[in-house]
Amino acid sequence: MIAFLRGMVLLLMLAGPAAAQSDLRPLIDALGAGSGFDATERAVQALAATGDPAAAPVLRALADGDLVTRTSDGRVFVGERDGRTYALTDALTGEDAGEAARGDVDAIRVNNRLRRAVTAAMGSLTLQSPSIRQRMNAAQAIFSARDAEAIEALDAAIEAETVLSVANLMRQARAAAVLNSDRPEAEKVEAARIVAARGDRDALVLLAPYAEGEGELAEAASAGVSAIQSRLTLIDWAQNVFYGLSLGSVLLLAAIGLAVTFGVMGVINMAHGEMVMIGAYTTFVVQGLMRAHAPGLFDYSLLFALPAAFLVAGAIGVAIERGIIRWLYGRPLETLLATWGVSLILQQATRSWFGASNREVSSPSWMSGTIDVLGAQLTLNRLVIIFFSLAVLLGLMAVMRWTSFGLQMRAATQNRRMAAAMGIRTPWVDAMTFGLGSGIAGLAGVALSQIDNVSPNLGQSYIIDSFLVVVFGGVGSLWGTLTAAMSLGVVNKFLEPYAGAVLAKILVLVLVILFIQKRPRGLFAQKGRAVEA
Amino acid sequence: MKLFTTAGLVGGLFAATMLSGAALAQDAPSGEPIKVGILHSLSGTMAISETTLKDVMEMLIADQNEKGGLLGRPLEAVVVDPASDWPRFAEQARQLLAEDQVDAVFGAWTSVSRKSVLPVFEELNGILFYPVQYEGEESSRNIFYTGAAPNQQAIPAVDYLAEEEGVERWVLAGTDYVYPRTTNRILETYLKEELGVAEEDILINYTPFGHSDWQSIVSEIQTFGSSGKRTAVVSTINGDANVPFYRELANQGVSAEDIPVIAFSVGEEELAGIDTGPLVGHLAAWNYFMSVDTDENLDFIDKWHAFIGDEDRVTNDPMEAHYIGFNMWVKAVEKAGTTDTDAVIDAMIGVSVPNLTGGFSAMMPNHHITKPVLIGEIQDDGQFETVWETPGTVVAQEWSPYLEGSRDLIADWRAPLSCGNFNVVTGQCGGQGAEAAEEAPAEEAAN
To answer: What is the per-residue pLDDT across A376-428, written as a single tens digit (0 to 9) for each?
Structure first.
């Protein structure tokens, strides 16, 4: 008898999903039945209300915009477009369902509102999923959707949850749902406290509407809001410093190479920005090659792009020095005009070669997204660039300080004739120095390809800023370049929220002009005879 | 050495263009060619957008020649490069009209370039087809506007967000020049007067051209959006600055489900340089998307790919505006039976041609065309999926009812009125708005 019962239960369990599947069909077909987003949204909610996990992939396909309705019988399929036909597969079972011409199916449109509804619905469907990640996503989805219908599902999930942090997230989600429900006030007040304890911007968004008005709930909510706001003010301040440093590090990268060619050699190189651009395009080419030949290493493509960009930009730099600049030493105005001409030629050459459109340089996965430092959201790519720019600066200082090339470079800078008399091949040193400056610009290009667009105009936007940094920092001083770049970045970022981006830039320029009036040699003035000469 | 090969390459490309031009003329019908001027920047900052438009014009002209030309005569393209330099636009326009004696010109992208060539076209009585969405507040007898006016793009976009997504709080972010400033002035009035949005629920932000450091602005948008009211960004950010802007949005995790961004200047071409995976759901309002599913459009795309020899090249809204404008001009010339400027200008009004979205666009008496308005969401393949469209086409408001000084103005180039800024209150041509329109170029130069 018991065996029989057990058998029956087993049979029922086996039959369960099959029965559910046949129940789901009309609900799935309803997704494409109505006209307009309202009808689809109702169908999504009906599908979610079944609580059947089998509905989750269908909803996911809907959110991805992959569902189509066959006009002849109103059935809904997953449709993959191939030119002027669609390949259909069954939305539930994934079985092949033949082909349909473009005119015979209607794609089910999704918009942001519908995507939000799907995310919320998926939340209650995947609350008890075996994957921790999915459970967290589900809790987060319910938190943002504040779906009052999900409270019971959440209670069950919290009961079953073994991971503490996930359970916490679920409690916050439950609190959000309670706030949005018609539960008694006392429960809502408690919920407001739980949400406030979360302390981030999402919590603020949720609490803000309840903070207006009177009563215990409004008090609890507004207490939460003001606590979060004062915390966020602090975080904003810290974030501003980070933004400033990251802008500074971009300025630093663009300016270090110039500090060598302008600061050390005294050459006004208007084509410096184009060296940066060449570095960015080299990154694009390297990524293209790696996508074709070594897709496994693609995530590290930037590491391969760095030496390539250094060599390519450096080689072009040497060519420019040998071909043009060496005939013009001691004639700064002519150098300026000649290198400006070179910059136009390089830009147009790039445009003819790669086309006028932007080129897509992708970010490796380890450089995308944000990390949370005590509540401040720091973007990873900017963080990497800050460290990279410092590394480049230190590397350059090491080369100048400890290599024989660095020594020769400094000698030729301080007293060219004396250096030549001591047997240093000054023309060779000049070419190599110019190549080094250009190579560093190429490295900057690799970094800038991660935050700016790779287009023929890339370099132009940095050339003025670079000169500003080098002049402000004190021509020829690498420490000055560092200080100038970082302080300009931070000042800019603190001015921006008050003055706006346009005015902030102008104000910074005015401040620098005033400063240069007072101290014509910049922050870190070079001392000694060589400077006077 | 590197420089030498580059120079060789540039020279080669140049020669190739010339040769293909010559080849076109050979298999075209006989007779004195009808010249069509193409005034698009092939170098400088605007080359990114305008080069494609030169290509599509060459395609349309080649296509027309295959169909037997126009009035039995072959068409010939005269291509110049104003190099994104506004005074040069005026010089090149003068050269096209006075020296090359072209019968119509297609060109200009920015409002500054259009304003620079406008006096030239009026002085020498030429015809210009202007193919880009713009801020309105203009109507010239010699210019045909085939892009959208603000009510054919910006206003329906705002309506969509308010109705469909329940947006109550607005960030108007733009590049600091005339198009975003005028459009945002119109939108600000519209939001307050028509949608009842409060002053504190509107945040206006301007950035310089080519702005690349969006960290604090994106963070400010997030803060502004955390009031509990649904927030959206209306972006009139132009050109290159869009790439770092969208990258920063993706990096700071601003998803379209939280704070959608609707853009008026970002099309398929601009998205080509961005990984659009994290941007799915952000919106754009245009009158055409490459993804539009009509036979006309699929044929157009096939033709474009065959012409350009690259399956990856995208099509976009200004290309459709050229397609419409060119076909309208062809039809008007056939109607007039001559390429004589005055006859063609008169014949243009009322001409109606198929657009690529499955309907017809007509040239109205205000020298603007009727267009459908489409709202699309960015997909992960860099294309747009239409999520909403107007049931029919929309007539352009060249003078916005939401701007002081232009409320009372209308444009009608039919006899006997024949006026671009007729004030219906005073009954004068060149009324109140005239000074504002004349001051505009000076304002742009300052920007």
So the answer is: 888 899 999 999 999 999 999 999 999 999 999 888 888 888 889 999 998 99
| Contact call for A113 and B164, based on CB within 8 A | yes
For residues B244 and A521, is the Cβ–Cβ distance under 8 A?
Answer: no
Q: Identify the residue whose tokens are 């302080």.
A: A487
Residues in chain A closer than 8 A to B274 (CB atoms) = 358, 360
Please name the amino acid found at residue B199. E
Does residue B13 surpass a pLDDT of 60? no
Question: How many cross-chain Cβ pairs, A to B, lie less than 8 Å apart?
Answer: 170
Q: Which residues of B160-176 are buried (b: 16+ CB within 10 A; e: fewer)?
A: bbbebbebbbbbbbbbb
Q: What is the distance between the alpha carbons of residues B108 and B38, in angstroms, rounded to a whole number?
A: 9
| Beta partners for residue A5, in sequence order | none
**Cα–Cα distance between B390 and B153 in angstroms, integer?**
11
Which tokens belong to A123?
A: 């939340």
How far is it, in rounded angstroms, from Cα A359 to Cα A283? 10
Nearest to B48 among A144, A316, A357 (CB): A357
User: Tokens representing A438?
Assistant: 């250009």
pLDDT at B445 over 70: no
- Average pLDDT of chain B? 87
Q: What percent of chain A has pLDDT over 90?
A: 33
In chain A, the percentage of residues whose pLDDT exceeds 70 is: 94
The reply to whether residue B251 touches residue A246, judged by beta carbons under 8 angstroms, is no
Q: Which of A204, A246, A357 to mutate to test the interface with B (most CBs of B within 10 A)?
A: A357
Residue A513 has pLDDT above 80, yes or no: yes
In the structure, what pLDDT confidence band is assigned to residue B306 with cuts at 50, 70 and 90? very high
pTM given for the model: 0.84
Cα–Cα distance measured from residue A260 to residue A264, given in angstroms and rounded to the nearest whole number = 5
Instruction: Assign A147 to helix, strand or coil.
Output: coil
**A320-324, A371-375, B48-52: lowest mean pLDDT where?**
A371-375
CB contact at 8 A, B369 and B363: yes
Question: Are B257 and A501 an interchain contact pair (Cβ–Cβ within 8 Å)?
Answer: no
Q: Please, what is the angle between helix A55-63 and helix A37-49, to 10°? A: 160
What is the complex's ipTM, to 2 decimals? Answer: 0.82
Tokens matching residue A38: 């309202």
Residue B298 has pLDDT above 90, yes or no: yes
Which one, of A368, A398, A393, A401, lies nearest residue A383 by Cα? A368
pLDDT for A16: 43
Strand B409-412, strand B384-389: pairing = unpaired
Res B265 pLDDT > 70? yes
**Range A127-138 burial, b when 16+ CB lie within 10 A, else e:** bebeeeebbbbb
Beta bridge partners of B385: B377
Q: How far apart are the first and last CA of chain A?
A: 109
* Closest residue by Cα to residue A463 from A344, A288, A376: A344
Residue B341 CB coordination number (10 Å): 18
